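R.M. (postdoc): so does anyone remember the format we settled on? I'll just put the C-alpha cells first.
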C-alpha cells in the first residue's frame, strides 16, 4: 500500500514502498515521520503539475533498486558513470550513499573550474540524477574537523576506504540532457518511455 507523507511545506509525497521499509534506517526521526504519515495515509497527493512544460515532470509507479560498493583508489564519478552505462540505467537517482575520500575534486557554486581538496573526507551527501545521456551529481564532504564543503561532483574524487551507493531507477520514464537556451547548460528533460 502506498504511503503518503505530509512534508513541512504542506506538500504530500506518495511512496510505493511500505513506510517501514522506506525509513527503516532513519532511527528516531524515521519513526516520528512514520507516525505522522499514518495520520495522512488516506489523503490524496496534489495532482497539479509543477510546470506547464511537458518535459519538466513525470511520474513512475515502478522502482528498480541497484547497489554498488566502491573500493580504495577508485574514482567516484567514473565508477558511477560506468555502472549507469553498464546497467543501462535510463532514469536513475541516488537514494543514499556513504563512504570516504582520500582526495576530492568539486566544482563549487558559480565557479567555472573545479577545486581539488587534499586530505581525508567523509561523504555526508551524494545526490543527483543519472541517465544514458550523462549524470548530474552534487556531493558534500566533511573533513576531520567537521568543516563541510559541497558542489558538483567531477572526476578526481578518489575513494579512501569505501563508498556504498544505492541507486533507484524510475521505470516508465526516460531522462535526457539537452541544451537549454535559458540556462546555457545541458538540462534534464523528462519523458514517458511508454
Amino acid at each position: 500500500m502506498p504511503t503518503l507523507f505530509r512534508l513541512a511545506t504542506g506538500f504530500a509525497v506518495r511512496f510505493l514502498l511500505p513506510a517501514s521499509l522506506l525509513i527503516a534506517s532513519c532511527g528516531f526521526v524515521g519513526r516520528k515521520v512514520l507516525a505522522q504519515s499514518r495520520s495522512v495515509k488516506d489523503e490524496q497527493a496534489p495532482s497539479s503539475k509543477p510546470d506547464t512544460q511537458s518535459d519538466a515532470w513525470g511520474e513512475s509507479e515502478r522502482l528498480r533498486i541497484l547497489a554498488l560498493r566502491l573500493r580504495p583508489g577508485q574514482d567516484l564519478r567514473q565508477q558511477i558513470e560506468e555502472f549507469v552505462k553498464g546497467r543501462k540505467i535510463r532514469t536513475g537517482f541516488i537514494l543514499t550513499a556513504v563512504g570516504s575520500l582520500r582526495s576530492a575534486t568539486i566544482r563549487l557554486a558559480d565557479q567555472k573550474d573545479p577545486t581539488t581538496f587534499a586530505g581525508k573526507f567523509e561523504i555526508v551527501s551524494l545526490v543527483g540524477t543519472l541517465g544514458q545521456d550523462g549524470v548530474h551529481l552534487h556531493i558534500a564532504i566533511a573533513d576531520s574537523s567537521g568543516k563541510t564543503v559541497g558542489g558538483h561532483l567531477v572526476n578526481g574524487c578518489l575513494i579512501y576506504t569505501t563508498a556504498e551507493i544505492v541507486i533507484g531507477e524510475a521505470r516508465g520514464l526516460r531522462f535526457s540532457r539537452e541544451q537549454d537556451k535559458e540556462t546555457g547548460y545541458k538540462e534534464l528533460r523528462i519523458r514517458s518511455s511508454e
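R.M.: ...and that's the designed sequence above, right after the C-alpha cells. Also worth knowing: The domain at 62-178+186-192 is CATH 3.30.1330.80 (60s Ribosomal Protein L30; Chain: A;). The two ends are 24 Å apart (CA to CA).
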